[in-house]
Amino acid sequence: MLAKLFTALCWFSPSLRRLMWRQWYEFLAGRYERKDWSFMNYGYTPLGPHAEKLALDEADEPNRYSIQLYHHVANAVSLKDSTVLEVGSGRGGGSYYIKRYLGPQTVVGVDFSEKAVAFCNRNYFLDGLSFVTGDAELLPFENNSFDVVVNVESSHCYGSMDAFLMQAKRVLRHNGYFLYADLRGKDKVDTLYKQLYRSGMALIKATNITPNVLEALNLDNERKTTLIQQSMRKLLLYTFQEFAGLKGSTIYEGLLAGRVIYQSFILQKDEN
Predict the structure, then answer these.
(1) What are the Cα distances from residue 23, in Å, to 5, 116, 252?
(2) Which residue, among 2, 7, 91, has the nearest Cα to 259 in the 3D structure?
(3) What share of the chain is helix, strand, coil (3-state, %, to 5)?
(4) How many domains does the chain have?
(5) What pTM was estimated for this model as a whole?
(6) What percent of the chain has pLDDT over 90?
């Protein structure tokens, strides 16, 4: 009931959505300090008979499905020797993966949760990787600062998608890429496309990855269920099950029934 009420209130008001998500992520970062909990996305798995298995270090295997979502999004263009900004870096696992595996010169993770940023700065020590507190709708960076902006399963928390896209474009260099993935209710998909077109960035590719995300949720359901049962207070078990997209949750059933669509996008800043 609490999770459904939270979702309903968030969709009712953009400003309330922004405030409530911020408080939720501050709570998570401050209350749950597990270093092995470094991702919060729904995951991705390649489909088809010729899908190749992503090579990962053994220590990264527990987070395979969440990592595969980042790989799908961020590896869409070459990041070698580039400067990368992840907006909505959360608990830092995505930025850490990008820096270690995809070869950028630098990665900066920015998040509106001060406690999440503090968590990242306590737990990740890697040259060229840093985390700062900032607002996706008013990014604390100069114009033309980054070659690539990455945003994974975060924008549904924002008060203004248009403001975020304007900021992403502003901080990108000429010909820079915006690599993006998130979910929307089926009735909101057209609105999202209009927002992307209004940004002035060129939409190069859009992919419906709902089946890939659903399969990841299926394959990772047992692990997530065990972690939640071991780590969370009984009072919040149902809320966390909904938040994690476990089988039977509102999000899972929405993806399964086609009421919720998960997509990935490649956009490029192309202007004189």
Answers:
(1) 15, 11, 23
(2) 7
(3) 50, 20, 30
(4) 1
(5) 0.89
(6) 69
